Amino acid sequence: MTSGITLSEIRKRARERMGQICRVCRVCDGRVCAGEVPGMGGIGTGASFMRNVDALASVKVNMRTLHGVKEADCSISLFGHHLALPVLGAPVAGAKINFQELIGEYELAHAMVGGCFDAGTIGMTGDGGGPNVYQSGIEALHAFGGRAIPVVKPGPNNQIISKFKAAEDAGAIAVGMDVDAAGFVNMRLLGAEAGPKTEDELKELIRSTKLPVIIKGIMTPDEAELAARCGAAGIVVSNHGGRVLDHTPGVADVLSEVAKPVKGELIVLADGGVQRGVDVLKCLALGADAVLVGRSLTIGAFGGGREGVRCVLNKIQSQLETAMLLTGCASTADIGPHVLARIRTGESWI
Ligand SMILES: Cc1cc2nc3c(=O)[nH]c(=O)nc-3n(C[C@H](O)[C@H](O)[C@H](O)COP(=O)(O)O)c2cc1C
């Protein structure tokens, strides 16, 4: 498991293997790949992907070093499972449409779920046009004793219910649905049915499974409350990495207001532009219980398979522990709004 491969080697290999699909930029901000959906970029002008990164960068943290915190413990418990760090692998799928088959669907799912498993956390798997996409994720779940969370597309309810059943049979920890894929261009290109869900449709889906259900793609407080009312166990505050709708706010712009009405009632996850430990700290301070990482782990998978994903997660964990020490947080429960700094810009405070 410890092959000794370095992160720079992983990134170099990924750059070679991914070609024009992802340039593995030194700063991953959605600018070079703007409009590249299918692919790794953001939709349209790329503004939503860019805003995710910029919004997170504009959040500043208070450094505190006069305290007794000598060691930081960043582990959490999620649905009764111990996680070494508050970071999960985001669902990333569609090897054929997004990656022109430069990686196999199962190879990708196996690397993501396996790398998360090795790092002591949980990976999510995705869904897409063809049946092999979701099925590859389910096979990866079987390979790791069910320690993963499959996320389905918002297709017809009867199809989702069968997919939830397959997840139960694979021993999944929970299931998810990325409701924000309702009008996703990739789904249209593949001729797959997907659309918004009414409150009744959502309730039917949540009632159909004994597993906790996570609704991914919530960007407003009213929809967070709606998910709670329908019996969801968690939400992911997410704009799908800026891949579904141009000109949305960044996730860090809305996270605290979306989390506020449901905090403590639902598990609040968030993703979009999280690449380093300090980004995780910021999201937790804004109200998330944990975050998902998508593109950075995908680069790990391309450059080093399961080991590459583990390496990226280990790096984020050590950065987070350092960030916690330097902000006086001994555990994730200590990370709160007091960690965030108010910055003077011109005449106003933000
Ligand atoms: C190539 C690619 C494929 C994705 N496939 C899925 C998917 O199948 N299901 C899903 O819910 N989200 C999918 N996503 C969105 C990610 O789960 C995540 O929300 C997004 O990438 C934001 O995180 P990031 O900024 O860390 O990449 C995909 C993202 C990318 C880049």
Structure in words:
The structure is a single chain. The chain has a single domain, classed as TIM Barrel. It has twelve helices and 14 strands. It has helices at residues 7-18, 47-58, 95-99, 105-118, 131-143, 157-169, 185-189, 199-207, 221-229, 251-259, 277-285, 295-325; strands at residues 60-61, 76-78, 81-83, 87-89, 123-125, 148-152, 175-178, 213-218, 234-237, 267-271, 290-293, 340-341, 344-345, 348-349. The chain has an eight-stranded parallel β-sheet. The chain has a two-stranded antiparallel sheet with strand order 1-12. Strands 2-3 form a two-stranded antiparallel ribbon. Strand 5, helix 5 (131-143) and strand 6 form a beta-alpha-beta unit. The radius of gyration is 19 Å and the shape is globular. The mean pLDDT is 96. It binds flavin mononucleotide. Flavin mononucleotide (FMN) is lined by residues 40, 52, 90-94, 98, 126-128, 151, 178, 216, 238, 240-241, 243, 271-274, 293-295.
Helical proportion?
Answer: 40-55%
Strand fraction band?
A: 5-15%
Form type = globular
Please report the first level of CATH classification, the CATH class: Alpha Beta
How many domains is the backbone divided into? 1
